Amino acid sequence: MSKEKSLSYTIHNTYSTLNEHSEKTRTVWLVIHGIGYLSRYFIRHFNHLDAQNYIIAPQAQ
Questions:
Q1: 26 lies in a domain?
Q2: Coil, strand or helix at 28
Q3: How do residues 6-59 score in pLDDT, each as one tens digit?
Q4: What residues make up the domain containing 38?
């Protein structure tokens, strides 16, 4: 029989952003990459979006 258990831990990590968050921001994107990416490189896939889009790419743990 399986049992669900829990644990807690603290971690600090980085995230990358693209464009500036301002009054002109219309959309905030939270983009999640897969295995093998670093957020600083993954966020480049969103360069084609205009400055009204604020992109946040957290680094995977």
A1: yes
A2: strand
A3: 999 898 999 999 999 999 999 999 999 988 889 999 999 999 999 999 999 999
A4: 15-58
Whole-prediction pTM: 0.80
Please name which of 11, 57, 13, 55 lies closest in space to residue 34, comparing C-alpha atoms: 57
How many residues comprise the chain?
Answer: 61
| Pairing label, strands 15-18, 27-30 | unpaired
Q: What is the dihedral of CA 15, 44, 51, 60, to 10 degrees?
A: -20
Q: Which amino acid is at 57?
A: A
Total structural domains in the chain? Answer: 1
* Widest Cα–Cα separation across the chain: 54
Q: Which amino acid is at 29?
A: W
Considering the domain boundaries, does residue 27 fall inside one? yes
